[in-house]
Amino acid sequence: MDQYERFDITQKPRKEKFFLTPVAWLLSFPTVWRRKLKINKVGMKGLKPPYVLICTHHSFLDFKVTTKAIFPHRANYIVAIDGFIKREWLLRNVGAIEKRKFTNDTVLFRHIKYALEKLNNIVAIYPEARYSLIGTSSILPDSLGKMVKVLNKPVVVLNMHGDYLTQPVWNLKMRKVPLKADMTKLFDPEDLKTLSIDEINASIRKAMTYDEYQWQKDNHIKIDFKDRAKNIHKILYQCPSCHKEHQMDSDEHYIWCNACGKTYEMSVYGELKAQKGDTEFSHIPDWYEWQRSEVIKQLKNKTYSFSDEVIVEALPNTKGYINLGNGWLTHDSNGFSLKLKNETYDINLEKEPLSMYGCHVEYDYMHKGDCVDLSTLHDTFYIYPMHKKNVVTKIQLAVEELYILEKEKKNLT
């Protein structure tokens, strides 16, 4: 990959250009007004930039909700490198700070510190590092508490509701859903000095907790959208009746198993009901967490593994994706191994379990299929399984649980 120019991660963040601020407001406000966004602010009176804004991550709507929440101020946003493709000038000049997902990046910390101390800006961070797959909280890095303690600036959490239900990552067609956000100041600098990192992390995780399907049920939000369950089988990949994996399918408001034939209907209030027999999980996140428990069993029994021929694309810079050809991806208790060798490229990428607390997956990405992306500090590889279908959600669950298991082993030893 040395033949390609890399994205320049050393450029310092900038304040948003004054002429771009009205554009950002124009692109954001009509959307949130139509969805009757309500922002519940707690402890925010009198708080002005700079401060750290930690946000939940559901869909592209998050950025529009955040824009309204911090009005009339603007922020430096942490943005993944794929957001910069063919629009680097624009992203840099609205204050975006580039990040390659799930990498340990000390340069990013320096940029955040610069934006807070020199630009006197808000820095908006989405530490879940991907859109929520099932509308519930994702794992957060342990380093988050240490970072905000060292930065020693006020910490605010923006916990959004309705963004996921409007546009879930597995079906990007927009639904009509009202929006709400809780904007809470968690810490002043004086608090950060006295609290331990564990206490800081615990408070952040509590403030970041959400369950969008429970929120929908509690608020009686009706989503009468014909295709409301279409593609949800990409998340709910294992049948709770026969326990077969990767045999699920879905369309309109139904999800079913091609192995045993059991079918479930998704109601307008986001609940599941079996058409025949018992309903194992009426609450959709419960199905997802059951799959997680099955993955944990396989990891502990040493029976988990994934291996397949893959198509590999690289994103070294913001000019676009580079097709590297076919390779081979393996994921097991040793972590990831990506191997590719042809006349032009020779890739041998190993990612140990403790190097990633999570991973980023996409569904039918760019209409090319489901993919996993793996990053180093200088490269990002988009990896598309060629023969095994509906597998990336399980890989993501396995990455999270491998990290936890390996961390427990390390603490014990």
Automatic annotation (TrEMBL):
Top-level division of the source organism's lineage: Bacteria
Protein name per UniProt: 1-acyl-sn-glycerol-3-phosphate acyltransferase
Higher taxonomy: Bacteria, Bacillati, Mycoplasmatota, Mollicutes, Acholeplasmatales
